[in-house]
Amino acid sequence: MGPWTLIGNHTFGGTIFMYEGAPDYPEPDRFWSMIDRHKLTTFGISPTAIRALRKYDDEWVEKHDLSSLRLLGSTGEPWDPESWMWFYEKVGRSEAPIINISGGTEICGCFLMPMPTQPLKPCSLGGPGLGMNIDVVNSQGESVADDHERGFLVARDSCPSMTKSLWEGDERYLNTYWSTFKDPPMWDHGDWAQKDEDGFWFLHGRADDALNVAGRKVGPAEVEGALIEHEGVNQAAAVGVPDDTTGTAVVAYVVLEDGVDVSDALREELRALVGEELGKPFRPREVLFVDEFPKTQSGKIIRRAISALYQGEELGDMSSIENPEALEEIEAAK
């Protein structure tokens, strides 16, 4: 949403609306109330936030007039179809398109974005943005986009708005973005992507978050999407951990709905649910229950921190965390 806010909005003399605090305090309709009261026209939000808010009764949305909304925005992480449809139908009234984009501060633009001339498909990001030479490649740097396989999202060339270096220096810039693929050199965006048979592009999470179980890869969002379909689950986070048999095993952390009790029977229900949706190899080795996840200020779950705590590793840079107290709960999860 950065390019919209910083460049597009100021170019056309628009007004930026800012708020402080949690989206469900003092009530779960805080977003919908602000849109109604201030007649906001463009509303951007993360899939994680929508997954949490849609668990509340629909009346929290329906009692507000959201007809001022013309565009819905999203960025940062993959969608699950159920949450995408809820956002489109309940918040956008099946009229406001969801402009799901993938970009970054270092690009100041969008690698992937739906064009006004394109139809929308749930969870898709449309296709390459204007001026972007984007591809999906395997670990050898070979294009797999037209084979509809999952691979690394890369840029085969620079774009005019792309940063030329980092404050820390050229070496870190080159190592971070241009060192994964060298012949030919390509910008490695760090995302796991796929183009389907209809030409629509999808993200499946960060490449380093991908779950490679017994030679098959899925994004954590797919495991999480299966888990939150259970009526007792409010939020879910899936991480991969080393396993002697399959190479990687799935460990799931779950935030339950109010009034739902933790039980071994529930754990088995959730494991079975993932197995039915994605196949037995992806059934979580463990299901652990917590009250909240560590998140960034924009609402993204910090999965690398969850994985590090489970494995007893160093957390690394946590400067972006919004709720550091959640780390203790993850560490103590059972």
TrEMBL record:
Lineage top rank: taxon: Archaea
EC category name: ligase
InterPro entries: AMP-bd_C, AMP-bd_C_sf, AMP-dep_synth/lig_dom, ANL_N_sf
Keywords: ATP-binding, Ligase, Nucleotide-binding
Pfam (any one): AMP-binding
E.C. designation(s): 6.2.1.1
Domain AMP-binding enzyme C-terminal: 222-300
GO biological process, one term: acetyl-CoA biosynthetic process
Ranges for domain AMP-dependent synthetase/ligase: 5-158
Keyword Ligase found: yes
Cross-referenced SUPFAM superfamilies: Acetyl-CoA synthetase-like
UniProt entry tagged with the keyword Coiled coil: no
Name of the protein: acetate--CoA ligase
